[in-house]
Design a protein that fits this description.
The complex is a heterodimer of chains A (332) and B (391).
Chain A lengths: L5 H4 L27 H13 L3 E5 L3 H6 L11 E3 L5 H17 L9 E7 H6 L2 H10 L4 E6 L25 E2 L2 E2 L8 H7 L4 E5 L4 H13 L4 E6 L3 H4 L6 H10 L6 E4 L2 E4 L10 H4 L10 H22 L11 H6 L2
Parallel strand pairs in A: 1-2, 1-3, 3-4, 4-8, 7-8
Antiparallel strand pairs in A: 5-6, 7-9, 9-10
Helix pairs in contact in A: 2-8, 4-6
Chain B lengths: L2 E6 H11 L4 E4 L6 H12 L6 E4 L3 H14 L3 E5 L1 H16 L5 E6 L13 H4 L7 E4 L3 H16 L7 E6 L7 E6 L2 H7 L16 E2 L5 H33 L6 E4 L6 E5 L3 H14 L4 E6 L1 E3 L3 H7 L5 E6 L10 H10 L7 E6 L9 H17 L6 E2 L5
Parallel strand pairs in B: 2-3, 2-4, 4-5, 5-7, 6-7, 11-12, 11-14, 14-15, 15-16
Antiparallel strand pairs in B: 1-8, 6-13, 10-12
Helix pairs in contact in B: 1-2, 1-6, 3-4, 6-8, 9-12
Classes of the chains: A alpha/beta (332), B alpha/beta (391).
Chain lengths: 332, 391
């Protein structure tokens, strides 16, 4: 695998898909839903990881669809222990590799250590062990598959569920708009740990995802990658729209793609013009109940957050959608 | 040559772990386990033990980190107590189901609430069904010996089960005792480097921790059960090997002055030494009293126990934990189950003693025997007695 360089990341056009690794480490035959954005992301993240790695995985959708005994979709050495402790398990793997290397017990190259978990396993129940592992500075990469709710157990809300979304435990009703809190800013929490590399990524932007994973692996110390994983089952969206919805998330500014290297923010995908958030919300049944008022609120909140991020990156402002009465009416 | 040392038992345990050449340690501080991990971390800091010591942010992460360490192929150790063991609970079952030979010292301490840092066996009894090998020790020498032997037992490819050494918090962990330390060469000869049966290795990738559908879950649990009951023979052979090397032999159920005894006390842990003093005094007074010390708790030594009570009329089980609202305290419940189908089983009497650090001088055992003898005539007044409750 070539050493990743910043300059190369600017030239995605020089990377054609035929130049990407052909090896499959997350193989077919797993039981994910049709149109699963997460399975797509896992496949490409594993390609980027390459052969010499050990994966610790949290309980969740991806664990359940991929590891039903006696089958497995994982070509990596792979360990699932529980829901909330993946970062601690990865800490143990990384520490054991250190002592085994010191004692000359490793026969091959020292494997990379990767921990993976869903948004529940990362931002809710696994936050403590993740925080501990980042604070201790283990040399590992954590990848969060964020499908914005507990999809595996039947679409219950998590702290990563966005404002206004309908889930089975944040249902809209006479007294509720659905999820009434804003999505927890897990990326900012990771950045606050002062770790050397933090990034957002999306399987709808394959090369961006690929290079961020390479960069995370090659960064000594903890790295954190937050991957938005479109979930047709939980988002109530058409299965063929998963990749497009991932693009709309970026193009509306709902889920910007950026990285934070040693505290320095950089946008990695900069749409010249932002779409109205309605383009992203409308194809998703989980937002169907929202009134114009809430949609306008989401639009305003999204732009405000986006501007804060642009300022951190020192990036130029794109063309924003016009926030007028008409815009709000259009969202009928 | 082995040499005599005077040392706090916690420190002796840390030396046992050092001489066992543990490679990976993850721990979170909790009283009264702290001295063990403090000394291990200073050994690592001083280069006296070549190991990775990870200061995790909770006991839940301690045992989780140990799973990662052991699954990668390192000899792994941790220690905890009470609330820490309770916080680990979920993961303890997974560690044994993954068949990872982690060794853990539990400095036994009462469970909250109310908060108590003092000794009883409430912590481990709440975790008795975790599928680990569980051994109780009585004094400093046993603490050292069994800490070394635990690695050899756990890492046997026919066992591959995590192992807990229970030692009583404070009343054993914090006392200074005279012990005999073997030479490092002897330990090295006894305990060769750990070679995992399976490990996380890109050259031979395996999926660990797969989920099981109803078609296979029962079979996996049966395999686990067979491994744990089957570990009995291997435990005994490791104990014998150590005994042959050091002259210190151990049995699943230890006997003290049981010859001709009509009444037997049964204890676990370091209170057994106090009970011995009481038995001596009662024997001197002409009472036919003996003592059984239950060392092996998992796997439960049914045959040894049945044999040990042959000829006895009354077995007085001294529990150090409660099963609130249950049929019996934990040890009594198991002992009674072991006896139920025996044709000439002894009667049982039950006393719960020493909860939350309540002191147990030898006189307590004499009072218990007297009360049990009286009730043997009249029938017990309660299913079991929580002995010495005031007010």
């Amino acid at each position: 695998m070539e050493k990743f360089g910043y300059a190369q990341s600017q030239k995605f056009d020089t990377y054609a898909s035929r130049l990407m690794p052909r090896e499959e480490y997350f193989t077919s035959g797993h039981r994910s839903c049709q149109g699963c954005g997460e399975a797509l992301a896992v496949r490409w993240v594993c390609k980027a990881i390459g052969k010499d790695a050990i994966i610790a995985h949290a309980t969740g959708c991806m664990e359940i669809v991929s590891s039903g005994w006696p089958q497995t979709a994982w070509m990596h050495p792979w360990l699932h222990v529980a829901f909330e402790n993946t970062s601690a398990v990865a800490s143990g793997i990384e520490s054991a590799l250190k002592i085994l290397e010191r004692k000359g017990k490793l026969t091959g190259p020292k494997p990379k250590v990767v921990a993976m978990g869903g948004d529940g396993g990362t931002t809710d129940i696994g936050l403590q062990s993740l925080s501990g592992a980042m604070e201790r500075g283990h040399n590992f990469t954590y990848v969060c598959w964020d499908n914005e709710a507990y999809m595996n157990t039947g679409i219950q809300r998590s702290s990563s569920t966005p404002y206004g979304a309908m889930t089975t435990t944040s249902p809209p009703g006479k007294m509720s708009i659905g999820q009434h809190t804003q999505k927890k800013n897990m990326v900012a929490i990771a950045v606050a740990h002062g770790i050397p590399y933090v990034a957002t990524a999306s399987p709808s932007y394959m090369f961006d995802l690929y290079f961020k994973v390479r960069k995370a692996l090659e960064t000594p110390g903890p790295a954190y990658i937050h991957v938005l994983s479109v979930c047709p089952t939980g988002w109530r969206s058409a299965t063929e729209l998963s990749v497009r919805l991932g693009r709309y998330a970026v193009e509306t500014g709902v889920f910007p793609l950026f990285e934070v290297e040693n505290g320095k923010y950089r946008m990695t995908v900069e749409p010249p013009k932002l779409r109205p958030v309605q383009d992203y919300l409308k194809p998703q049944g989980r937002f169907r109940h929202l009134r114009d008022k809430e949609r306008a609120h989401i639009q305003k909140y999204t732009l405000a957050q986006y501007q804060l991020l642009l300022d951190k990156c020192g990036a130029a402002y794109p063309e924003f959608p016009v926030l007028t009465e008409e815009t709000e009416e259009e969202t009928e | 040559m082995a040499h005599r040392v005077g040392m706090e038992v916690s420190i002796a345990v840390s030396h046992a772990v050092q001489m066992s050449r543990a490679e990976a340690i993850a721990a979170y501080p909790i009283t009264p386990q702290t001295h063990i991990v403090e000394h291990l971390s200073s050994m690592v800091a001083n280069g006296e033990l070549d190991a990775e010591f990870v200061n995790v942010e909770s006991e839940h992460s301690a045992i989780s980190t140990c799973i990662g360490m052991s699954a990668t192929g390192a000899r792994t150790y941790t220690a905890t107590s009470s609330q820490g063991l309770a916080l680990m609970n979920e993961i303890l079952f997974i560690a044994s189901a993954l068949r990872l030979p982690i060794v853990m010292t539990v400095a036994n301490r009462a469970l909250s609430g109310p908060l108590s840092i003092w000794n009883d066996h409430g912590d481990i009894m709440a975790a008795r069904d975790i599928g680990w090998i569980q051994i109780f020790v009585e004094n400093g020498q046993e603490s050292f010996d069994h800490s070394v032997m635990a690695f050899k037992i756990a890492e046997n490819h026919k066992v591959l089960l995590p192992t807990i050494i229970n030692l009583d918090g404070f009343i054993l962990s914090h006392v200074v005792e005279a012990m005999e330390f073997p030479e490092q060469e002897l330990v090295d000869k006894f305990l060769p480097p750990y070679h995992p049966r399976f490990s996380l290795d890109p050259k031979n990738p395996v999926t660990m921790g797969a989920f099981a559908m109803p078609e296979v879950y029962t079979e996996v649990k049966m395999g686990h059960q067979m491994a744990l009951t089957g570990s009995y023979d291997h435990i005994l052979s490791v104990w014998k090997e150590w005994g042959d090397l050091t002259g210190r032999h151990y049995k699943p159920v230890e006997k003290y002055k049981t010859d001709g005894a009509k009444i037997l006390l049964l204890t676990m842990g370091c209170l057994s030494e106090v009970a011995e003093v009481a038995v001596d005094e009662m024997r001197d007074a002409g009472l036919e009293v003996g003592l059984l010390k239950l060392r092996m708790w998992r796997p439960f030594p049914f045959a040894d126990l049945r044999k040990a009570v042959e000829g006895a009329e009354l077995l007085i089980v001294c529990d150090r934990a409660l099963s609130l609202g249950g049929a019996a305290p934990p040890v009594l419940a198991e002992v009674r189950s072991a006896f139920y189908e025996m044709p000439n089983r002894p009667r049982t009497a039950s006393f719960v003693i020493g909860l939350g650090g309540r002191d147990i001088p030898p006189g307590v055992f004499k009072d218990i025997v007297a009360q049990a003898q009286a009730e043997a005539q009249t029938g017990p007044t309660e299913e079991y007695h929580i002995f010495g409750v005031r007010g």
